[in-house]
């Protein structure tokens, strides 16, 4: 049955993938457009005798995740943009205490209450360490229901390997749309990596464990942060993910993730029908960002058009990666508006002087 | 020869950073004594709040988790749900519990989370240096209430009686208020803590012991004056005793709820 293809909403596929990844505890608070995910986890977790709590707030939900993960559990929360702002407190603590967990953001438009339509306006918050202090964490951006399930499933293992929160940043469209998905197999709960740092459990014979982000001695804290940044370098070397489409033939390469990348794929097809070659570089890991690949393409003389459902956030990373070696332009819509293939293609043609 | 005094096993033999006359040291000792008496040192976990007692992990000889300010009950919820067979102690001060973490304590109590909160009420912010707390008495001076807590003109509100506030919640099963101003009250407080820990280990709902405690430094008093002020000024506002006791008889208690990993 595991191999069967199902028609599922993105939010539900994320929930099912988390359950199959062995999520022990889910804590959430209702917010549109991710409500199906919380409801899916309520039924899926409680029916299996696992922990589900509808928390009093996103702030509390994130600290519940922190506590459950500190005690060695595979813990997860999900929300949408305004709720993820509230979770930043706990995410910063989890990063400071090296606690693995999974945070899903099915993003909507902002700022403030904004709207409930899909948006990519949370890129800065997700990739810059959205809370206080010096830190980053892995951010994965699915473009489809299938990838939403796959990346959520993988997120738990990545969190444990690198001892950090892993964020799945899906825009509201990915959460709400239905597509065919082949779900990953359920993980064997008895096969867990050791967590020698976790509190509780069979503690006889080991020194006491203290999960904390507090270090008051400046040189000691500096050393801890530097060690964490050395780990970030390892992650960048090992876990930077992207998809490249038609970049060899194209002179202009779109850079886009999530729903915006699918709009670009449509524009590439439409261009091909007219005999024009366009490419796409799609970051799958937003942090670490595929800087080296962009720099390589810039060296080959490509120019770039970043397409985002925002006023331009990821484009800053594209410019940093290219470092002046090639022109980088931006096209975006915000407020919950999804750009059309036609307008993206028209912008590409205008830039290239084809029109 | 009979041993009549020994250092509790669950408390490390180190000098604390607490000020002379501070109540934290006594309360730490009571917790450690009860943990030892129940024989659960190796399956005890303490949640350290933000405040003076953030140092608790230096003193208790068992595992600890340090959480964001006020989120102590939320963090404890996660820990206890994963480790239902452990004794989870949520140690909170009045700022952590009754100001920034009000939502978390109310909802943890209402869910009947099966951990025990030790709520240290000293009517002042200690670590940050003497600001007004939710439990500061009317007229009591603080750096942020320089003319005394004034509920009327300055709109500073009234001391929050946490046990009474939580008593109406279905999940709260045991709410007691003790004090460490006199030897008699210290002994009584220990009984409350033991009753709460035993109830937790039996898988009963939310349990909390509030402890009225002196803060000589920020009250600008000597240790003896501070202990006397707990008696004379705090006790009339925060009456001692078991504010709510709905603990079922030991034989009727149900084992812990769903959760855990094993």
Structural class of chain B: alpha/beta
Strand content of chain B: 15-25%
Spatial gap, N to C terminus of chain A: 51 Å
Number of helices, where a helix is a run of at least 4 consecutive DSSP H or I residues of chain B: 9
Question: Could you explain how this protein is built, in words?
Answer:
With 355 residues, chain A is an alpha/beta fold. Chain A has helices at 10-20, 35-46, 58-70, 81-96, 123-127, 145-162, 172-176, 218-239, 258-273, 291-299, 314-322, 341-352, and strands at residues 5-9, 25-28, 51-54, 75-79, 101-107, 138-140, 165-171, 178-182, 210-211, 242-245, 252-255, 278-283, 285-287, 303-308, 328-332. The mean pLDDT of chain A is 96. Chain B is of the alpha/beta class and 262 residues long. A 7-stranded mixed β-sheet of chain B has the order 2-1-3-4-6-5-7, with helices on both faces. In chain B, helix 2 links the parallel strand 1 (44-48) and strand 2 (63-66). The radius of gyration of chain B is 18 Å and the shape is globular. The N and C termini of chain B lie far apart (44 Å). The model of chain B has no long low-confidence stretch (mean pLDDT 95). The chains are: A alpha/beta (355), B alpha/beta (262). The A-B interface holds A 24-25, 27, 46, 49-51, 53, 55-57, 59-61, 63-73, 75, 89-90, 93, 97, 189, 192, 199-201, 203-204, 208-214 and B 42-43, 45, 47-48, 54, 57, 61-68, 71, 74-83, 86, 103-104, 106-107, 111, 258-259, 261.
Task: Name the features.
heterodimer, A: 355 residues, alpha/beta, Rossmann fold, seven-stranded mixed beta sheet, five-stranded mixed beta sheet, 12 helices, 15 strands, 20% strand, globular, B: 262 residues, 34% helix
What's this entry about, in short?
The complex is a heterodimer of chains A (355) and B (262). Chain A is α/β, with parallel strands linked by helices and 355 residues long.
Question: What's the layout of helices and strands?
Answer:
The complex is a heterodimer of chains A (355) and B (262).
Chain A lengths: L4 E5 H11 L4 E4 L6 H12 L4 E4 L3 H13 L4 E5 L1 H16 L4 E7 L15 H5 L10 E3 L4 H18 L2 E7 H5 L1 E5 L27 E2 L6 H22 L2 E4 L6 E4 L2 H16 L4 E6 L1 E3 L3 H9 L3 E6 L5 H9 L5 E5 L8 H12 L3
Parallel strand pairs in A: 2-3, 2-4, 4-5, 5-7, 6-7, 11-12, 11-14, 14-15
Antiparallel strand pairs in A: 1-8, 6-13, 10-12
Chain B lengths: L23 H15 L5 E5 L7 H4 L3 E4 L5 H11 L4 E7 H7 L1 H10 L4 E6 L40 H5 L5 E8 L3 H19 L4 E7 L3 H4 L3 H15 L3 E5 L17
Parallel strand pairs in B: 1-2, 1-3, 3-4, 4-6, 5-6
Antiparallel strand pairs in B: 5-7
